[in-house]
Design brief:
- Keywords: Plasmid.
- This protein has one domain.
- Helices cover 27% and strands 31% of the residues.
- The protein contains three helices and four strands, in the order E-E-E-E-H-H-H.
- It has a four-stranded antiparallel beta sheet.
- The radius of gyration is 14 Å and the shape is globular.
Length: 90
């Protein structure tokens, strides 16, 4: 099985990152990678890189890879940090 990744760039709270997504990483799982371009820590990883295996149907149900990552970052964002940020930053 050939693994073909989709590549997306996004900016979240001023942090540029790349989302890589392979919907058919194996017969049962998709593969999702999140990497901040300067390896800036994110709410889902202190190293700026996160790799996750999940089901393709889950990614689709949650709005696709970019929407999934954006929602995940927002959900994990520390409420104390959120209060300090300007509304335009998130």
């Amino acid at each position: 099985m050939e693994r073909r990744y989709q590549h997306y760039r996004l900016e979240w709270c001023g942090i540029e990152m790349e989302v890589r997504y392979c919907p058919q990483w194996s017969t049962c799982f998709a593969h999702l990678e999140i990497e901040s371009l300067c390896r800036t820590p994110l709410p889902v990883t202190l190293t700026g890189y996160r790799s996750v295996h999940t089901q393709t149907a889950t990614v689709e149900r949650l709005g696709g890879p970019v929407r999934l990552v954006e929602d995940w970052l927002e959900r994990e964002l520390d409420p104390k940090l959120r209060r300090k940020m300007q509304p335009s930053q998130y």
